[in-house]
Amino acid sequence: MATTPATALAGAAVTVTLSAAAGVYHQVHNVTWSYSAMPTAGRITLVDGGTTIVDLDLVQDPFDSLPTSLLPILSLLPNTDMVITLAAGGLGVTGKLVVDYDDVTFQ
């Protein structure tokens, strides 16, 4: 399993991109995020090959993760980018994002 952490500049969105590879599907096991303060417009999205799979507003807790009922998330098709984005939390708020995933192939 690979773990990819990313940190945004204050007031900016943070993104982790799982790049497309021939014959490879992405399997996301966990997505965890945090904001340095309560976000004014918190949001987490997961887009697979242009299709939005997860789109959640984050209004209560500056630190959380995707519910286990949504996991794992498997790419719809092989050879597509999967982009996980934590929206900008507001002026002076820093966002952090950690994605645990595997790249898998099926024969």
Question: Mind explaining what this structure looks like?
Answer:
The chain has 107 residues and is an all-beta fold. The chain contains no helices and 9 strands. It has strands at residues 2-7, 14-18, 25-35, 42-48, 51-58, 63-65, 73-74, 82-86, 95-104. The strands form 2 sheets. Strands 1, 3, 6, 7 and 9 form a 5-stranded antiparallel beta sheet that branches. A 4-stranded antiparallel beta sheet has the order 2-8-4-5, with no helix packed on it. The two termini are 20 Å apart. The mean pLDDT is 93.
Give the helices and strands, then pairings.
Elements: E1 2-7, E2 14-18, E3 25-35, E4 42-48, E5 51-58, E6 63-65, E7 73-74, E8 82-86, E9 95-104
Antiparallel strand pairs: 1-9, 2-8, 3-6, 3-7, 3-9, 4-5, 4-8
Shape: elongated
Percentage of residues in helical conformation? under 10%
Count all strands and give the number.
9
Radius of gyration: 14 Å
Largest sheet: 5 strands, antiparallel
Number of helices: 0
Structural class: mainly beta
Fraction of residues in β-strands: over 45%
Q: In sequence order, what are the helices and strands, one letter per element?
A: EEEEEEEEE
Distance between the termini: 20 Å
Mean pLDDT: 93
Instruction: List low-pLDDT spans.
Output: none
